[in-house]
């Protein structure tokens, strides 16, 4: 197997992308600008990423023959979502470099393994406990207290696979409703704001972080991101250091997002890590129009073995607004807004909670 440090693509080479959603679409578009081809593998025939690549493979991730043919056609493989089946990653990893390394998936696909990993680095997280039954859930609540958040250990996103437990709730009913035998209980964090750091790491060990982003969620789905976050410079530096430390400890190659809570205590605000996303991330979409290099180009550079860019924010403040569900039907109203850029993902019919596009607004620096 080719070592990740030996990957050095040249224009005209081909990147394989697992997953055909909007993230895969934007990765392929960034690669094309750099003269690199992409081939997308997705089981969904309506994948929006298929629209922007010449070659695509529509097959199930369990289709070993299709995976082998896909690997034969590309020079390096990456992914747009972290829940790539382990068996598929194993098949591909034996044939082509998979970046970020599939071992990263073993850590980040499991919330408990991820929390243990972060804690061992000496980085703060909410208090947590492994839960496998109603009785172990009761024991965890006795240690951690309420309110608390019960989450499935795998396959949760945008608020799916989790439930807040409060005093007086029927614990057995909550456990049954989650429909899992493997969960994690996390202490509820009374945070001041939610932030994220988009970091890129090259195989050489170089790390570049974008400005810390402040995020606003509605119905558990990211609605608005603003860069830079309204936090002190020292806290922003701490957040970037946390993301850099995590990327380095994972021996990561590519772009990842580290979501964090900012909370106040007796000694001033501090950050706790909430989750790691081993991929380009919704909260980094502002970089498409608001920075000298986007998170998507940065990821392509990293996995291609090219030098990382030095991210420079274009405006005083850059805002990204997700267009969710029927909001996409009002895209025209954004087209005349000064400093706004509209991105439409080319998905099918809108439905509640579905991310259909986003708008980036760049506010120029104030005259001095």
From TrEMBL:
Homology family: Belongs to the PurK/PurT family.
GO terms, molecular function: 5-(carboxyamino)imidazole ribonucleotide synthase activity
Pathway: Purine metabolism; IMP biosynthesis via de novo pathway; 5-amino-1-(5-phospho-D-ribosyl)imidazole-4-carboxylate from 5-amino-1-(5-phospho-D-ribosyl)imidazole (N5-CAIR route): step 1/2
Gene label: purK
UniProt catalytic activity: 5-amino-1-(5-phospho-beta-D-ribosyl)imidazole + hydrogencarbonate + ATP = 5-carboxyamino-1-(5-phospho-D-ribosyl)imidazole + ADP + phosphate + 2 H(+)
Binding-site list for ATP: 111, 151, 156-162, 186-189, 194, 217, 274-275
Residue stretches making up the ATP-grasp domain: 115-304
Record flagged with keyword Protein biosynthesis: no
UniProt cross-references to InterPro entries, sorted A to Z: ATP-grasp (IPR011761), ATP-grasp_carboxylate-amine (IPR003135), ATP_grasp_subdomain_1 (IPR013815), PreATP-grasp_dom_sf (IPR016185), PurK (IPR005875), PurK_C (IPR040686), PurT/PurK_preATP-grasp (IPR054350), Rudment_hybrid_motif (IPR011054)
Keywords: ATP-binding, Ligase, Nucleotide-binding, Purine biosynthesis
Function: Catalyzes the ATP-dependent conversion of 5-aminoimidazole ribonucleotide (AIR) and HCO(3)(-) to N5-carboxyaminoimidazole ribonucleotide (N5-CAIR). Catalyzes the ATP-dependent conversion of 5-aminoimidazole ribonucleotide (AIR) and HCO(3)- to N5-carboxyaminoimidazole ribonucleotide (N5-CAIR).
PANTHER family per the UniProt record, alphabetical: PHOSPHORIBOSYLAMINOIMIDAZOLE CARBOXYLASE (PTHR11609:SF5), PURINE BIOSYNTHESIS PROTEIN 6/7, PUR6/7 (PTHR11609)
Name this polypeptide is given: N5-carboxyaminoimidazole ribonucleotide synthase
Subunit structure: Homodimer.
UniProt keyword Isomerase present: no
Top EC class, one word: ligase
Lineage: superkingdom: Bacteria
Listed EC numbers: 6.3.4.18
Organism listed in the record: Bradyrhizobium agreste
